[in-house]
Amino acid sequence: MSKTLYTYQLHEESESQYTVTMLPDHFFARDHVVGGRPLLPGSVYLDLMLQVLRKKHPHVTGLRNMVWLAPIVITQPTSLVLDCSTKDICQIKIDQKLYARVRANYLQPEIGDDFDAEKLKSYLPEQTAGDHLYYLAAKQAKFYYGTTFKVLQHSWWDPNEALVTWELAPELLPHCDEMLLHPVVIDGAFQAAGMSRQRPHHDTVYVPFALKELTLIRDLPSKGMLHLRYQREASYADQHSFDIDIYDCSQLAVAIRGYTIRDLCGNQPTDN
User: Fold this and answer.
1) pLDDT of residue 133
2) Angle CA(198)–CA(204)–CA(209) in degrees, nearest 5?
3) Neighbours of 79 (CB within 10 A)
4) Domains present along the chain, CATH in parentheses
5) Contact at 8 Å (CB) between 181 and 47?
6) How large is the average pLDDT for residues 125-153?
7) 233-259, pLDDT tens digit by residue?
């Protein structure tokens, strides 16, 4: 049995291009399977693009206007090109095909009052264990999450808001410092958003589609809380939008605004 890989390495090919090779042995391919296919998590795109943009512009605080254009299946070694030839823009390509595009963000978010988890729990009426709410339902929705991606624990929720606790698997802890936006932490936030819209016996597979803004405020912790707010139905009936904050106890670590999910099999607008 081959050794599981827990990180990846960017290679600088030119002043404006980096490459990275994704392997089936990477944990995020092995433990992130959708409809029987190992799909590169949308959160990996974000980490790669932020790393590249910060190499060129150290003052980048995050990402904005992110669009996931196509899923990437990792059944064999796959070389991704991260192209930053246009100022403040990063694109992911494979064999000249465009898979994602994002802009650099230099702004700091407006941070409101101190986060009060206990107050949120007091008015969110439902409480559910993560394994029941997320991972059993995920199998029905054609997602298979291996042990490294089962990060969600308990939740308090209503139809428009949720508070969710999360913790990284022990085998991931030695590699936390090797990524800016740890893919499992960000994917945990995406899991919570997708499962919040999943209806029983409804054949829908929600995947990332767009993101208005993401700001990295401090290093991601190994455990914490997610605060999700459902914003609206997006332009299409099979799209839904959220604001998500990722906390280390009471301190905000990542602010995500306008994260939109879509049905993998639904009708989508063309890229513009």
Assistant:
1) 59
2) 90
3) 12
4) 11-108+115-263 (3.10.129.110)
5) yes
6) 78
7) 555 667 899 999 999 877 899 999 999
